[in-house]
Amino acid sequence: MAATPPLSIEDxxxxxxxxxxxxxxxxxxxxxxxxxxxxxxxxxxAIRGGRVGGILNEVDPEVTRELQRxxxxxxxxxxxxLVGRDVVHGFETVFPIPLGLAATWxxxxxxxxxxxxxxxxxxxxxxWTFAPMIDIGxxxxxxxxxxxxxxxxxxxxxxxAASIRGFQGETLADPxxxxxxxxxxxxxGASEGGRDYNSTPxxxxxxxxxxxxxxxxxxxxxxxxxxxxFSDVDxxxxxxxxxxxxxxxxxxxxxxxxxxxxxxxVIELSVHGLTEGDREAAREAALAGTDMEMASHAYTDHFxxxxxxxxxxxxxxxxxxxxxxxxxxxxxxxxxxxxREQIRGGPRLDLxxxxxxxxxVLLRNEHDTLPLNRERIRTLxxxxxxxxxxxxxxxxxxxxxxxxKSQTPLQSLRQTLGDTTVVRYARGVExxxxxxxxxxxxxxxxxxxxxxxxxxxxxESILSGEAHCRxxxxxxxAQAALIDAVERTGTPIVLVVLAGRPLxxxxxLSRADAVLYAWHPGTMAGPAITDVLLGDQAPSGRLPxxxxxxxxxxxxxxxHKNTGRPPTPETVISIGDIPVAAPQTSVGNTSFYLDAGAExxxxxxxxxxxxxxxxxxxxxxxxxxxxxxTVTVRATVQNVGAVEAEEVVQLYVRDPxxxxxxxxxxxxxxxxxxxxxxxxREVAFTLHTDDLAIVxxxxxWTTEPxxxxxGIGGDSRAPLAARFEVTG
Length: 728
Ligand code: BGC
What we know:
Elements: H1 9-19, H2 22-28, E1 30-33, H3 41-48, E2 54-56, H4 61-74, E3 82-85, H5 98-102, H6 107-122, E4 128-129, H7 153-168, E5 181-185, H8 204-211, H9 213-220, E6 225-228, E7 232-233, E8 236-237, H10 242-252, E9 258-259, H11 268-272, H12 277-288, E10 293-294, H13 298-308, H14 314-330, H15 349-359, E11 361-365, E12 379-383, H16 409-417, E13 422-426, H17 440-448, E14 452-458, H18 479-487, E15 493-498, H19 506-509, E16 514-517, H20 525-533, E17 613-621, E18 624-626, E19 630-639, E20 645-654, E21 666-675, E22 680-688, E23 694-695, E24 701-702, E25 706-713, E26 722-727
Parallel strand pairs: 1-2, 1-10, 2-3, 3-4, 5-6, 6-9, 12-13, 12-14, 14-15, 15-16, 18-26
Antiparallel strand pairs: 7-8, 11-16, 17-19, 19-22, 20-21, 20-25, 23-24, 25-26
Helix pairs in contact: 1-14, 2-13, 2-14, 6-7, 6-15, 7-9, 12-13, 15-20, 16-20
Bound molecules: beta-D-glucopyranose (BGC).
């Protein structure tokens, strides 16, 4: 007799739905906050009664084991629980914040970090992470820019897919895999004024062209779940937005995973002013396509009444429940609800160090101040509030990070230089925010006695992340004054900036001989920074986001539109250039600021090395390609300096004439290459004409025939000197 084939996931969903009561169905739609390391009687009875679909923020392995045991052994149908947690940039081992990871421009590395995070979290019973966060971050005032992969849709989409592969492993059913959750769909990064939770009055074109692509890439990478954003998207909050959740996500992209709300976002629909009360909020969110409700319980409270009144159909509820069950089945939770006892895995601290090294961006290096020559430096001053802060170097979203594991820059420098160099430490200011100057004298004394002063400045962890936005972007507290005081000693200054966002360093830049931007590098900040400062590794991070001169210059990003009056070097004047009582004229005027010009402080893609790379022979073949064909763009890149180093080669494309205006340039590809001193290499990028698609006048992704300009270089200023034609 032939063996019965195993039931498909869809068959199993149907069988379960057939056996479930309405209460049990609605229970699956609630993602309940855990009890914080214990299991209360109320939670116990809710799980036994099938009234909970998932738990978030419970990571004690004993507790998660007990929760799953209750669900699978003591509830009527034995349906396991989703166990969710924000595993954002590591679990116990903390990697750089996502913005720092993005500065590596290294998808393989990002994938490995997510893999390690998944293994560590899965060993505690977590099976679902609310990551990656793939909102486009173009406003450094927004605290959550720290969680983004920066300003660019292609870089973000590529790293999103890599991170999802890392979290989800080869198959979701592997006990070491976490279901990923791409968030926050969509446009959250455009919060007005960079103020968190603020409205996002985005046009459909802007959504489709800029904010959707990373989500699309995530769906293509098989992301298990999606979280709608908190925000009001052009009048319809995302949690109740059928255009986003039904039309685009399900119908256009064919997503068949789970849509889970953000924290209390369902009941906040009434605070937004979209609905009156929780019952209506539940109805609107459910009908729009939010399957599961996080934290609040409007679904469990009101679905019975909504069904009775015919405002929601049971078929609709079944569809929502199916999306929850499908994820549980894909995760294999029915077959192995319990986690492994042991973490499986390879090197963790090594990986954390490598990720931190590659995330460091050298912004300035006058007179080759870096790398430090350890033979010549007898005394090194280590100054600043972030030189020795095991917790602050970890960054935002590190619920499970262990500061005890952190290796700080001061510790590493002492360890590495101990025998040859005197390391003098002076904190200078208590915290990054302190205004007190009592510590200045010590710092000045340390600098006076030193050959070089390293200043570890920036922002503590809590100054970025959710709800921690700033209106100004300078170094907070008395740090700029501390830099001034140290500068007066005449000792060369190296700034190492740890921060969760781009800071406007305009005023302090010229006071420093070198500036290394370190973001929040995580557990291995110390060894990574030490390696780069001492030249054991050349810096190879590149900015994933444009650095503004001041907050007033925001938004400033590389893929902006041309406008009808683009600035040119001849037209950009400064406020002092205008003659007194000058008459008004519109002739020759262009788009720039009188007090900040047209250029940012540092462009997207920028980063120095200890060597220099030269680009030549940028060429395209063929020079004309029909729709559906491919072109290859090539360049020769050479390391013309003395040390081996890695370069991030970037490809930019411009579609200069289209049915809807396009940015002046867009990143279309990148590669990290390692080149020995003197070595040249040909790099090639193959572009399919689909890669040149734009959101056309009718909101469709289309490649329009015509001329395209291309360039390859080391940052977003690469000249677009080559061209090709796409023929119809
Ligand atoms: C954040 C989400 C996060 C959730 C659960 C919310 O406040 O917006 O990104 O996943 O909390 O912690």
